Predict the structure of Neprosin domain-containing protein.
Amino acid sequence: MDSSHPERKSPLVLSLALSLLLLPLAAAGNHPVLTYHKGPLLSGGINLSLLFYGQIGRVQKVALRNFIKSLNTDSPNLEPEVSSWWRIIESYQAPGNRNSARRNPKIQVRVASQVVDRSYSIGKVLIADFLPNLVQKATAGKPNTVAVIFAAKDVTVQDACTGNCYLHGVLDSPTLWLGTQKMNAQECVHGQFHRSEYGPQGITLQPPNGNVGTDAMVMHFAAALAATVTNPYKTGFFGGLPAKPIEAATVCPGMFGTGAFPGYTGKVRVDPRTGGGFNAHGFRGTKFLLPALWNPKTSSCWTTM
């Protein structure tokens, strides 16, 4: 994995939880802007070491791995594709050449290893000081590996997710450290699977794979991975303040298709068999609802549909 930052030798860390936070509603008439701050981005091959901390079901693990496989798998007969969503993230590379007609280099993502800690080896209350131990457990000390740490819904992560969906900088590496709540709670899935108690009322979608917790987990993992690639050291692409950055998949909140506005997700497809809303096909026909991305070439929000 090439981060263009050879002096940093600690493992790259992406710390996630199965229970994530509310993304704010998009403001009507908002014109998002992400600025490139000249820092290194991730590129080339990205090896993920997955650590499932606590009691996490097989359904969640399979859905996550299917999504990761979908990033680099084209399915021409099933459009739109997860891989087309990922190509927008690939387009962040070599910012000075973004207007070039040349195709951007591929960012290959693969699962290098998977570890399960069902016994909650360091307890059910986690603080940032515990993160190095979890990273070591996930990566076994291997360099150039992104540790992806998922905490079960009965685990409490302290000092995390205050105002953002993820935090960078817990270690001297691109760190994501998320708080834990029940994934099927309304505030954790941004209202696309639940009717909002306030603000504009739009269409309430069914989860694409029939499980609110699983589909929300994948959705937020997608956003977190996008941020880690495009702003790994808080010096890449972001808007706002470095301590509370607006990043690739959070700059256009609540958007999943064209025509979106507060209370309406935009144009998405509905699976006639399950009633699930989705906007991307993935590995072996799997379906996902993925957030809008900021397109660096057009400096505007982009969706798969």
Summary: The radius of gyration is 18 Å. The mean pLDDT is 77.
